[in-house]
Amino acid sequence: MPNFSIPLSGLNASDTALATISNNLANLNTTGYKDTTVNFQDMFYNLLGSNGSGDQLQVGSGTSVASINTNFSGGSVQSTGVDTDVAITGNGFFVVQNGSNTYYTRAGDFTQDSNGYLVTADGYQVMGYPATNGVVNTNGGLTPIQLPIGMTSPPSATTDFSIQANLSANATVGDSYNTSVTVYDSLGTAHVLNVDFTYTGLTASGSGWSYTATLPSSDIKNGVGTSTTVATGNLTFDSSGNLTSTTPVALSVASLADGSSLALNWNLTNASGQGLITQVSGASATNSISQNGNTSGTLTGFSIGSDGTITGAFTNGSQILGQVALANFANLQGLTKQGDSNFAATISSGSAVIGTPGTSSLGTLTGGSLELSNVDMSTEFSNLIIAERGFQANAKSVTTFDQIAQDTINLIR
Q1: 200-203: long-range contacts at Cβ-Cβ below 8 A with a sequence spacing of 24 or more?
Q2: Domain contains 129
Q3: For an engineered disulfide with 128, which of 58, 91, 285, 324 has Cβ 3.0 to 4.6 Å away?
Q4: Are 98 and 198 members of one domain?
Q5: What is the pLDDT of residues 319-359, one digit of tens each?
Q6: How sure is the predictor about 407, in pLDDT bands with cuts at 50, 70 and 90?
Q7: What's the confidence (pLDDT) of residue 226?
Q8: What is the per-residue pLDDT for 47?
Q9: Closest CA to 119 of 103, 137, 134
Q10: Number of domains composing the chain
Q11: Which stretches does DSSP call E strand in 80-123?
């Protein structure tokens, strides 16, 4: 008698294949989606006996689904220009958290919630390493990444400044030139430091200029008059107009009107030891001024680098705010799909190995981009035809078995 369970097992397996292929095609445009493939295996065999050579006579019992494997190869990376979008190239998953539950995803279409946390489309918080004063600490545990637009960057007091200028070699004794530099105290208050240069004439070793650095007296606690002198001295030049007095000038104000203080160095040379002030022919002029302080600033945007470093753009400059973490597993096929483009770790997958992008076996990131689905439509259509033919063949077996059963019943009529 025919065994209907054999073609029925083929129908069930083919149905699973068709459902899997359909799911792949449905997720053709799902960010970070990974293609899956159904693999069949034959089932146990019934022993009918053996032939004269002692070979066993076996009849199979049909087929079943052996595995449904996920293709974790990378999808194409598409630029979006959105700061919160991130694509992974290579191995790894973003670590996201929903309450006490931790999941892993390749979908980097993140947004920010009302509190500035970086979140997935379903509101799961993206995890990473925090930064303190621009320094990332990767030794601590992962924390939700928070980037609230409008957050304040603390001020930084000026400790060094420099003036690149020329003092005219055509000056006569008593001629003067003035320039100024804006410096900042520890509270972020700006102060205009004026520097007056006066030509003092020729000496036995060459020519010289005196300088006087002043601050508005209103900037200084109990200041008297219009301006207060904070430093004086002399600059000397050789016959080629090169600065010969290159020792940095220390300036300090113990008590400013806002309650802070200033302590800074006026660097007269560059990193190579060359003088920044010259005395050559032409008008006295300032070419450039630099200083290392700034006032407080607010966050206006951010970018994510290839190593996951998040650099915030503030109105007063830039600062590192944190670093996105990635996770990898010993057995990717052991991960379970949770929907919403999320995976969960299992005993089979092993524990997550977490680190920074670009280290160990982890891939790198591309900010302002998304990883597309790795489903190949032409391959899926081919698989769809094969699965459909398998379903049709097993359906034909069922109808054939049905006819045989009907013929057997008719034998007793």
Answers
A1: 200/173, 200/234, 201/173, 203/236
A2: yes
A3: 324
A4: no
A5: 899 999 999 999 999 999 999 999 999 999 999 999 999 99
A6: confident
A7: 92
A8: 79
A9: 103
A10: 3
A11: 86-89, 93-98, 101-105, 111-112, 118-119
Domain with 32 in it: 5-50+58-72+376-410
- CA 49/CA 5 separation, integer angstroms: 21
Same domain, 259 and 174: yes
> Are 274 and 166 part of one and the same domain?
yes
Task: Tell whether 166 and 272 lie within a shared domain.
Answer: yes
Token pair of 344, please?
């969960």
> What is the model's pLDDT at position 362?
96
Q: Residue 305 falls within a domain, yes or no? A: no
Task: Give yes or no: residues 252 and 202 share one domain.
Answer: yes
Each residue's pLDDT tens digit, 292-316: 999 988 888 899 999 999 999 888 8
pTM of the predicted structure, to 2 decimals: 0.74
Q: Where are the beta strands (DSSP E) in 115-273?
A: 118-119, 125-132, 135-136, 143-144, 152-153, 160-166, 176-184, 190-203, 206-216, 227-236, 249-253, 262-267
- Are 278 and 170 in a shared domain? yes
Asked whether the beta carbons of 242 and 248 are under 8 A apart, the reply is no
360 and 399 inside one domain: no
Q: Reply yes or no on whether the pLDDT at 256 is more than 90.
A: yes
For residue 267, the tally of other CB atoms under 10 A from its CB is 18
Q: What is the DSSP string of 64-82?
A: EEEEEEE--PPPPEEE---
Phi then psi for residue 94, to 5 deg, are -70, 145
Q: Are 31 and 107 in contact (CB under 8 A)?
A: yes
Average pLDDT over residues 366-373: 96
In the numeric block, the tokens 């400013």 are attached to: 256
